[in-house]
Amino acid sequence: MRVPVPDPVPPVAALGRVHLVGIGGAGLSGIARLLLAHGVQVSGSDAVDSAALQALRDLGARCHVGHAAEQVGDADTVVVSTAVRADNPEVVEAGRLGLRLLPRSAALESLMQDRTVLAVAGTHGKTTTTALLVAALAAAGVDPSYAVGGELVDTGTNAHLGGDLFVAEADESDGAFLVYSPLAAVVTGVDADHLDVWGTPQAYRAAFVGFLDRIAAGGFLVVNTDDPGGAELAAEAAGRRLEVVSVGSGDEVALWLGETAADGAGSRTPTRWRDQDTSVLRLLVPGRHYAFDAALALAVGLRLDLDADRLLAGLASYTGTRRRMELRGEAGGVAVYDSYAHHPVEIAGDLEAARGLVSGGTGGGGRVLVCFQPHLVSRTRAFGAQMGEALGAADEVVVLDVYVARENPEPGIDGALVARAVPLPADRVHYAPDPAPVPTRLAELAGPGDLVLTLGAGDVTELGPKVLDELRNRHGGSLDRA
Known about the structure:
Blueprint: E1 18-21, H1 26-37, E2 42-46, H2 51-59, E3 62-65, E4 77-80, H3 89-97, E5 100-103, H4 104-112, E6 116-121, H5 126-139, E7 145-147, E8 159-160, E9 165-169, E10 184-187, H6 195-198, H7 201-213, E11 220-224, H8 228-239, E12 243-248, E13 255-257, E14 261-263, E15 266-273, E16 278-283, H9 288-303, H10 308-316, E17 326-331, E18 334-339, H11 344-361, E19 368-372, H12 377-391, E20 396-400, H13 415-420, E21 429-432, H14 438-445, E22 451-455, H15 463-475
Parallel strand pairs: 1-2, 1-4, 2-3, 4-5, 6-9, 6-10, 7-9, 10-11, 11-12, 12-13, 18-22, 19-20, 19-22, 20-21
Antiparallel strand pairs: 7-8, 13-15, 14-15, 15-16, 17-18
Helix pairs in contact: 1-2, 1-4, 5-9, 5-10, 7-8, 9-10, 11-12, 14-15
């Protein structure tokens, strides 16, 4: 549901006791952590129990499984996830009691007031770029506060209350990024998505123009100008006399990137900041798109006059974010990765990275087998055919049914729509409305040197460990986790 943003947004000290509906999600769990770090009494609920809920309990939050009106208790403020429906009993109860209702964006804004905000937006790569920026700043001697839409492998958390610099993932899906006032607005690129909210690609792109209006006085835009939407946004910002820090492979950019080459299971990319000498950007994660994410983080640090060598060292030591080309393990000579990619551009980028791993980083000659789960009915309706086309870069494709999340199913908008669009021979494309037999099927298909990639923003992530179990049973191989 969409909860209006109050004007003004109250500071964290004025929130009182806070109850979060959907507390186990990537966004609200981080906000709960930050509230607890501020000494706020926190409670919340979610549909199912999870490691995230247990971690919050360990920090002092009262977390409920399931939703019931009485769980609102004596809360003063209720924060509501966008995935929660308006008829949720806790939301209804909060309205009956006249409690303050806040969307996720306003809750995060209350936590960021009086801090210097570095906000990372864009259609693709927000979580990775935000996490890379945190890693770079930390290596440069900064203790940044942060809220990231995924768990950082290095820290084991998605949020931290540190110093004045606050690194925030700024989500455009519900307009959250139009609530913040950042010193640095980082945009990974602008491509059509979330049309269930914005309606048209034009309205979606216009929202990013609105993001420029949110940049604080003396602030700047850091943007990937190799991305067509990013280049358009940079031109718009320049026309408004905003400072633009451009990142790309062209001649007239602040941070130049050369060709990305495989470096074991990671990559290396030459970079040059303005008129300085060329440096090499090394990453432990593969893929050209991740090199661009890291370059955006590097550009922010350089613009803030932080030490280049320390920034690069932080990026080189970054071990990843959960569900972003995350190595789940290896068995029987087959590597199993998992990624959150759910848009055609993201699918293409991760499959390119996977292809680089089997052709260069893991012994050469292997195949890429992907199990993809479309996310959201509205996104599948808009981009299902393009999803299928992007999946054609794999050697073998399994497509699950749509993870409907906050929407209702719709006849004809299903995994079969995506599977029909995959440009591979019919015997190499498998539509699997029942996911139960999929791990066994993937283990049967995979051989030594191959890579299995589970892909999508839903519960497809649960299949990776099951594939590894099947592989171990078949080959007697050991499991080596990343």
